[in-house]
Amino acid sequence: MNHLFLRNIPIIGRSLGEKLGKFKLCFVGCGLGGNIAVLAARTGFRHFVLVDGDMVEKSNLNRQEFDHRDLGKPKVSSLKRRIKAINPQAQVKVFRRYVSMKSEILRVAGAANVIINTADFSRGFFEVLEIVSERKKIAVVPLNVGFGSVVTVFDENNVRMFRKEHESPDEIHGFRLLLSKTRGRYKLPKYFAKIFKQMGTSKLIHTPQVGIAAELTAALAVFVLLRAVSGNRLPMFPRNLAVDLEAVWSS
Questions:
Q1: Closest CA to 149 of 229, 70, 83, 242
Q2: Taking CA 229 as the corner, what is the angle to CA 224 and CA 233, rounded to the nearest 5 degrees?
Q3: What angle (nearest 5°) sits at the alpha carbon of residue 236, between those of residues 234 and 242?
Q4: Across 1-137, where does the E strand assignment appear?
Q5: pLDDT of residue 168
Q6: pLDDT tens-digit series, residues 83-133
Q7: Whose CA is closest to 59, among 50, 48, 51, 70?
Q8: Average of per-residue pLDDT across 193-197
Q9: Phi, psi at 115, each rounded to 5°
Q10: Which of 7, 139, 219, 239 could be cross-linked to 184 through a Cys-Cys bond (beta carbons 3.0 to 4.6 Å apart)?
Q11: CA-based Rg of the chain, rounded to a whole angstrom?
């Protein structure tokens, strides 16, 4: 076991730690996906495929794994540098492109055990889900919500519940749609409900996101990935794994 992961062993276990090193992750979207990828690298995952056509902007720095040195650079390149700085032995492939066709996604994600789908709610997001259905893969879909996080998982059995006819080029519409269809432990927190109603209007054009939620989302998503490697039951859509820190604080 690499000494990098020495402190992980008592909690994760040596056997599971060795499995993490062989597990292959594909990140479609490297904004929030970058937070998850960096934590995954610290946890023991070593095989990464990074897919994103975005460049790093100042507005990303409040919550994503970038800094001023990365401004104007491709997210995939900066994220690869970050992962390799943590674990030089990590295997990282990068694809600086937006993917919208199944054939494109299959080329980059075909060998992955799990796809972490943080693409904007556009054609690419739904094409990932189509691949999940056709190729019997798993997709982890994480969301930042206020001071909290919602993570859900799609496989070939439940992806039909979020069918492609829901596709919309409107990011906020997709965000609303996915949240409206999740159920179980998650309920939209009261403090965020007003914000949620304003999303997509002239009062709030962009989806509000804070770094606290991004880090929490990364923690929940990597926990789900650990359970996937272990073969444990996952929070399959429409169920979810969710935590809201404001709600916890107020309870």
A1: 242
A2: 55
A3: 80
A4: 24-28, 47-51, 91-95, 114-117
A5: 56
A6: 999 999 999 999 999 988 788 888 888 899 999 999 888 778 888 988 888
A7: 70
A8: 81
A9: -105, 125
A10: 239
A11: 17
The sign of the torsion formed by the CA atoms of 61, 59, 34, 244 equals positive
Mean pLDDT rounded to a whole number for the chain:
89
**Higher-pLDDT residue of 24, 104:** 24
Half-sphere exposure for 237 (CA within 13 Å, toward CB):
25
CATH number of the domain residue 108 falls in: 3.40.50.720
The tokens for 248 are: 């916890």
Among 161, 71, 173, residue whose Cα is nearest residue 122: 173
The number of domains in the chain is: 1
Query: What residues are paired with 142 via a beta bridge?
Result: 151
In degrees and rounded to multiples of 5, residue 15 shows phi and psi of -65, -45
Q: Using CA atoms, how far apart are residues 135 and 47, in angstroms rounded to an integer? A: 20
Rounded to whole angstroms, what are the CA distances from 180 to 113, 186, 188?
A: 28, 10, 9
Average pLDDT estimate for 197-215: 84
238 is in which domain, residue-wise?
3-250
Q: Cα(245)–Cα(239) distance, rounded to whole angstroms?
A: 19
**Tokens 């919309």 — which residue?**
168
Q: Summarize pLDDT for 40-72 with one digit per residue, the tens.
A: 999 999 999 999 999 999 999 999 999 999 999
Contact status, residue 206 vs residue 233, Cβ threshold 8 Å: no
> Tokens 């789908």 — which residue?
117
